[in-house]
Each structure stands twice: as C-alpha cells, then as structure tokens.
Amino acid sequence: MQHTKSKALYEEAVKYIPGGVNSPVRAFKAVGMEPIFIEKGEGSKITDVDGNTYIDYICSWGPLLFGHGSPDILEGIQEQLLKGTSYGAPTAIEVEMAKLIVEAYEGIDEVRMVSSGTEATMSALRVARGYTGKNKIVKFEGCYHGHSDALLVKSGSGTLTFGVPTSPGVPADVVKHTLVCEYNNQEAVKALFEEHGEDIACVIVETVSGNMGLVPGKKEFLEYLREVTKAYNSLLIFDEVITGFRLGYGSSPEYFGVVPDMACFGKIIGGGLPVGAYGGRKDIMEIVSPCGPVYQAGTLSGNPLAMYVGKKTLEKLKNNPGIYKELEQKASYLAQGIRNNLKALDLELTVTQVGSLVCLFFTSGKIESYEDVKDCDLEKFNKYYKAMLERGILMGPAQFEALFLSTAHTKEDLDVTLKANYEALKVAYNK
Ligand SMILES: *Cc1c(COP(=O)(O)O)cnc(C)c1O
C-alpha cells in the first residue's frame, strides 16, 4: 500500500498548519504514523489521495450514521445551496429542526443550535451556572466534552480532587471550579456532593463514553446522578454528542430511562456538516438571551445547509425505527466475531459494544472507567492498527477511539474486517 501522495501533502501541510492537521487525532501520531489524506468517501468506504480504498470505521468520528454521501440525505441540497449558504436571520428549517429534537428527546422543551459539540457543552455549562447561581461543575475522568477551558481537565492525585488543566493555556483559576470524578463510581460522586454539593451547578456526563475507547455507563450510576443532582439543586447534563440519535431515536433517556435537565448534541444531528445544539427544560432555557440574561450567540448557528442535512438525517431516523436494530445487529456481529478471533488465538482482550459502537481494548478484565483502560498495551495496539490499515480497514488512529458503524456497512464489509482482525492480531502478537 503506497502513501506517496499523502506523504507529499503532509510535507506541504506542516508548513502552514500546526502538525499539518486541523484536529490533533488526524495526525496519526498515537499510532506512530503520518496522516492519510482523503480524496472521497462513498457508503462504508473511503479512498485516500493515493487511490487506496478502506472500509471506514471513523465515519467522521460519528456523524455519518448512513455512511458517506448517502443519496437520500443529500438529495435536494443543491437547491438549498443555490438559495444561499447563510443569512444571519432565522429560517423555517431551524424551527423544524428544533421541533424534531424536542419531540424526540424526553425532558427537553427548547433547544439552541450552535456549530460544534464544543460550543454546545461550553454553552450548556454557562446556562447551568447562570440558572443555579453556582460555579462548580463535575465531570468524569476519560469523558471528553470538547476543548473549552473548563472541560480540559483531568483529576489530580487522590480520588476526591479538584481538576488540573490538561493543556497549557488553561488557567488554574478557571479549572478550580471543575471537580473530576471516576466514571461509574457512585461512591466517589456521593463523597464529592457531601463536600461540595451546595456549590455544584451541574454534573456533565457521557452516558456511554466514546472517548476512552468505549466504556458504557451503568444504568444505576446514571440513576444515582439523577438522584443526587436533584437533591442538591444541581443540573444533570447529558453530553449526547456521540450518543444522541445513535443509541436510539430517543437517545439516552429512552435507552437508560434517565431524564437529564439538559442535553448537548453534535455529530449525528449535522449528518457531516458543522453542527451542535444544547437544550433543556423550558425554565432553564428561558434564561438564555434574548429571553434572559445568559449570553450566547453564533454567526453561523442554525446554518441553513447544516440544518438541511441535519433535518434529513433526523427525519430518516424517525421514519425508519428499524435502523437502530439493524445497526445493533451489525455491531454485535462484529463484536462477537472479534471475540471469536480472540478465543481462537488464545488472547484475553476485552471487547465492548453498545448499539452501533464497538471497541477492542488491548487489555483484559472489566472496563468501567478510565482506570481500567489506561494500561492498555499501546505497542501491541499500534502493530495491530498498522496491520489493519494494510488490509484496508481504517479505524480511529488511537486505542482510545471506538469503531463507528453505519447502515452502509454490509455483512461483507464486516466479514472482511473480521478476517483482517484475525490476521492483524496474529501479527501484533507474533502468533
Ligand atoms: C466530539 C465530542 C465533543 C466535541 O464536539 P466537536 O464538534 O468536536 O467540538 C463533545 N462531546 C463529546 C462526547 C464528543 O464525542
């Protein structure tokens, strides 16, 4: 497999773009490689500038639930395009989009569109703080909520801690209000609330974490978060940027039976265009400007092209509820196939799967928190990764990324992937 053109583009790119990429993971650094530049995508496949075609499990990191260039999602976009790409004034399609989200998601009465997941979570925090009049927020180690200052935080030493910035440029003064807790650890949350509960504006959580590999939240844990936030007049925010409209049309409230006060969206609801959204109960959302005093705005918010694709995506999901079962079946076929390969090769590694998300961890045992995944064998993973790529399988270039399945992935794609998986594991473990 040749990467000559990608290599040349990368050499040019690093002259003008930091690291040659517009988002760090794309640099392939974690797997010790150089980035692959993409020419086009079609269905479940993606083709690079050197003409190599791969079965794509990145799928734009989640948005492409129907694969690349889905004709029914893109149908009519040209007409929309020719009507203009942005107005800076409201449109009918924004209303329809908001209505679709509100009707699908239990607990959300109003929603505000933004342009990325980062903007959605950042804005939701401001609203939660404005609404409660409190400053502290709780997040969980290993959950990612975009790159705003308050959320670029990991736990310091000890279990009950104030966060420390994970990036230079984030002032300690800003993150002193961010408390970091172990995921799925009810006792740790309880202790945190006993000490700081009166000052906690909100808890933000990925109900299924897709940013430390794939770590499912436990139903009891989420139920506890609901209970404790209610008891302390704090808000519960579900970051559904990955899980929203992926776990099911009703997202996490339907999947787990737990209803948050606010939720954040991104990825799928833009179907591949730049979108985010945050919403909540009416009394919460009505403190947002211009109804209320909490300021939040955006030049391209509710962009007509993004709304067009987002609306088409949501409508397709709404009208075809069987899609979720189909995705689940495909993902469990893949997960089970990987488990069978592991067994045949006498390897003890853990595979997690929730809905259309799958992850193979290069470690064994239970996977419930960042603690459980942080010691994965990255050297073996990297060998595995390269061997998969050579066999035409494109996955997120890091251990801590999930495989994203789409309806475009066929059984044949999955069988090709499983064969590659078997061979790549053999390469990684010298079997
Ligand atoms: C991707 C992601 C974000 C950030 O979204 P961007 O559009 O990249 O800013 C936030 N939360 C979660 C759970 C995500 O996976």
Top keywords for this entry?
alpha/beta, Aspartate Aminotransferase, domain 1, 2 domains, 4-stranded mixed sheet, Glutamate-1-semialdehyde-2,1-aminomutase, 431 residues, binds pyridoxal-5'-phosphate
* Global outline: globular
What share of the residues does DSSP label as strand, in percent?
15-25%
Structural domain tally: 2
Any idea what the CATH architecture of the largest domain is? Answer: 3-Layer(aba) Sandwich
Q: Count the helices. How many?
A: 15
What does this protein look like?
- With 431 residues, the protein is α/β, with parallel strands linked by helices.
- It has two domains: 4-69 and 321-428, Aspartate Aminotransferase, domain 1 (Alpha-Beta Complex); 73-319, Aspartate Aminotransferase, domain 2 (3-Layer(aba) Sandwich), CATH 3.40.640.
- 38% of the residues lie in helices and 17% in strands.
- It contains 15 helices and 18 strands.
- The protein has helices at residues 4-16, 71-74, 77-82, 92-104, 117-132, 172-175, 186-196, 219-231, 251-256, 282-285, 304-319, 322-344, 370-373, 378-390, 411-428; strands at residues 38-42, 45-48, 53-56, 110-114, 136-140, 153-155, 161-165, 178-181, 200-205, 208-209, 215-216, 235-239, 262-265, 276-280, 350-354, 357-361, 393-394, 403-404.
- The chain has a nine-stranded mixed beta sheet, sandwiched between helices. The protein has a four-stranded mixed beta sheet with strand order 1-2-3-17. The chain has a three-stranded antiparallel beta sheet with strand order 15-16-18, covered by helices on one side.
- A hairpin with a 5-residue loop joins strand 10 (208-209) and strand 11 (215-216).
- The longest helix is centred in the C-terminal third of the chain and has 23 residues, at 322-344.
- The protein is globular, with a radius of gyration of 21 Å.
- The model has no long low-confidence stretch (mean pLDDT 96).
- Residues 116-118, 121, 144-146, 206, 210-211, 239, 241-242, 266, 276 line the site of pyridoxal-5'-phosphate.
- The site of pyridoxal-5'-phosphate has 15 residues, from helix 5.
- It comes from Sporanaerobium hydrogeniformans.
- This is Glutamate-1-semialdehyde-2,1-aminomutase.
